[in-house]
Amino acid sequence: MLERRLTQRQRPRQTAKLDARLAALGLEWRSARARLSVNLFESRNSLESVNWDISLAPGVPLPCAPNPRTLLAPDWTFGKSKDRAVILRGEWDVTPNVTLWANAGQGKFDFDSIASSVYRVADTQGTFINDFAHQRDRRDRRAASAGLHARFATGSVAHQLAASFDWQHEQREFGFLLRMLSAPWVTNLYRPAWGPAVSRAFSNAALPPSGNSRLSGLAVADTLSFADGRVQLTVGVRRQKVSSASSSWFNPAAPWTFYKSSATSPAVAVLLKASEQVSVYANYIEGLSEGQSAPLGTANAGQLFAPYKTKQHEIGVKLAQGDLTHTVALFQIKQPSAWTDPVTNRFAADGRQRNRGLEWSVTGQLRAGLRVLGGASWTQATLTRTAGGVNQGKQAVATPRRQAKLGLEWDALPGLTLAGNLRSASRQYIDAANTLHTPGRTVLDVGTRYVLPTAGRRITLRAAVQNVTNKAYWAGQLYSGLGAPRTVLLSATVDF
Length: 496
Fold this sequence. Notes:
Layout: E1 4-5, E2 18-30, E3 34-48, E4 54-56, E5 78-95, E6 98-121, E7 127-154, E8 157-177, E9 185-188, E10 209-226, E11 231-246, E12 257-273, E13 278-289, E14 308-321, E15 324-340, E16 347-367, E17 370-385, E18 402-413, E19 416-425, E20 428-429, E21 437-438, E22 441-452, E23 458-466, E24 487-495
Parallel strand pairs: 1-9, 4-6
Antiparallel strand pairs: 2-3, 3-5, 5-6, 6-7, 7-8, 7-9, 8-10, 10-11, 11-12, 12-13, 13-14, 14-15, 15-16, 16-17, 17-18, 18-19, 19-22, 20-21, 22-23, 23-24
C-alpha cells in the first residue's frame, strides 16, 4: 500500500470550531373553544475537524485516549447541516370533555460533510492510517396527524380515551465519495499532522434519489380509573404500516431494496396508589423501531433492513418523600441485534439481544432553593442469539453495565442560580467477543444562570463549563471518537 507520512511542520491548530444557529417563530390564536398555532424554525450547524469510523488493526490493544483537545481530523474537514420546518396545529373543544386536534408539517434537511472515513490505529505507539470521504444527504419530509381526547364515565369507572392517526413520508437523496486520497496518510494519534485539503467540488454535485419511505399508524388507548382513582388500568393498541424503497449508499448502480411490513403493537399498564406517598406500577409495551443499515466496510454497505419489534416489561414503585420523588424500576427489553459475518463480511440484523436492569431516579427539592436531579442504573445487555452461537451470552457492545448522574441547582442569590452535574459510566465493550473495552469515566459539568430584573421582558443569561477537568476519554464505542474536551457555553434568551 502506498502511504504518505506527514511531518510535524504540517500540524494545524488544535481547536475545533462549532457554529450553531437557531431561529424560531411561533404564532398562536385562541378563543374560548379553539386554538390555532403555527411554528417555523431553521437551524444551521457547522463543525470543523470531523472523523468517522475509528478502528483498531487486528491484534492492537485499545490505546490510551489522547489529550481531549487533540483534533483527530484536519481542520479543513467539516460537517454542515441545515434543517427547516413549518408545523401547523389546531385544537377544538367539541364539549368540555371532548377535544379534537390535528397537526400538519413539512421540513427539509440538508447535510454536507468531508470527514475521516478510514481511521485505523496500527500499533501501540498510536500510528494510524487515514483517508477521507465526502457525504451529501438531502431529505424532504411531510407529516400529518389527527386525533381526539375524551373523558367520560361508565358507572363508577372513569375513562380517559385517546385515539390518533399519523402519516409520514420522506424522500431522500444521498451521495458518497470514498477514498478521496491517492494514498492513505499515516501520522500519529498523539501528535497528528495533516496535509493539504481535498477538493470540495462534490458539495455542488447533483444527487441521485436514494430512498422513499411511508409510515402510517392508528393508535387507541384508554385509561380506566377505579376506586376514586387509586387504581388505574391503561390498555392500548397501535397498528403501523411501513413501506420503503432504498438504494445502496455506496453503489447507486446496485438494485434497489423494497419492503413492506405492518405490525400490531399492544400496550398495557397498571398503577396502584397504595397511599398518598407510594404508587406501584407495571407495564408491557411493544414498539416498532427503524431498521438498521449495513455500515461502511461491509460487503452489503448501505443495505437498509426492515423495521423491527421491541418488547419491554417494567415493574416499579414511586415514593414521594416530602419534596422529593424517588422511582425504582426493574425492566427487561428484548430486541434484535446485528453482526458482521467474518467469512462473508456481510452485515446481518437477525440476532437477538436481551437487556435486563435496575434503575433508580430522584428529583425534587432538598430544601428551599436547592434542587436535585439524579439517578443510577445497572443493565445486563446479553446477546441471546448470535451467528453459530459465537459470543453467546456476551455483553452487547457500547452498553455500560453501570451509569449514574447527580445534578444540583442552588439559588444562591435572587435571580442567580449555580449548578453542578456529575456523569458517570462504566466500561463499554467495543467488540462482540468482549476482549476490548473503553474505560469507564466520570465527567464534571458546572454552570450558572442569571435572570435580569427587567420589567416587561424576562432576560436570562446562561454560562456553563462542560468537562471541567478536561478529562481524556473515549466516548463509548471506539468509533464514536474522543469525548468532548473542556467546553465553555454562553447563551442569552429573551421572552416576549
